[in-house]
Amino acid sequence: MLETLTKINDAVNSFVWTKTGVWLLIATGILMTVLTRGFQFSHFRHWWRKTIGSLLDKNVISHTDDKATISQFQALCTALAATVGVGNIAGVSAAIITGGPGAVFWMWFAAVFGMMTNYSENVLGIYFRRKNHADEWSGGAMYYLQDGLGGYPHMKIAGRVLAVIFAVCAALASFGIGNMGQVNKIVINFTSSFDIKALSSHVLYTSGGKDITLYMLIVGIVLMVLVGFVVIGGLQRIAIVAEKIVPFMVLAFLAGSFVIIFVNIANVLPAFKAIFDGAFSAPAVWGGATGIAFKTIITQGCKRGVFSNEAGLGSSVMVHSNSNVKEPVKQGMWGIFEVFADTIIVCTMTALVVLTSGVINLKTGAIETDTDAVLVDDAFDTVFKVGNVNIGSMFIALAILLFAFTTVLGWSQYGSKAVEYLAGKHAPVATKVYKVIFVLLILSGALMTSSIAWDISDTFNGMMMIPNLIGVLAMSPLVKKITINYADRRIRGKKDVKPILSYDPKINEENAKALAEDPNLD
Question: How many domains does the chain have?
Answer without folding.
Answer: 1
